[in-house]
Amino acid sequence: MPHLRLYAVPEEAAVAASETLLPKLAEIVDCPLDYFTLQLVNSTFYSAGKKVCGEPYIDVHWFAREQAVQDKFAACVQEFFLPYFSGQDITCVFTTLEGKDYYENGVHY
Question: CB under 8 Å, gap of 24 or more: what pairs does 74-83 form?
Fold first, then answer.
């Protein structure tokens, strides 16, 4: 934990993120690299009745961290993905989970 879900991100960016971004994020949150999950979500976007290219969206699910840590994490994500998306907004959204709501092997944290 944390879990990162990537939307409207090319596969090569996801592969590169798994190699270079995740170690940086692990350092920022001070947790082992193998606690992270990175998922590329294949999705289709629509606007005005037509299929469109979506803008990159990084959905982060994690346990609460201090605001300064979250800000540093988001800045690191932005810096990593910026070369892949010239001129596009890159959205990073955090969903904070509570230990009582997170189960692994049937046991909550």
Answer: 76/21, 76/24, 76/25, 76/28, 77/21, 77/25, 80/17, 80/20, 80/21, 80/24, 81/9, 81/13, 81/17, 81/56
Over residues 16-71, the pLDDT tens digits come to 999 999 999 999 999 999 999 999 999 999 999 999 988 999 999 999 999 999 99
Residue ranges and CATH numbers for the domains of the chain are: 3-108 (3.30.429.10)
Distance CA 57, CA 42 (A): 12
Three-class DSSP labels, 2-46? CEEEEECCCHHHHHHHHHHHHHHHHHHHCCCHHHCEEEEECCCEE
- Quote the pTM value: 0.91
DSSP state of 94: E
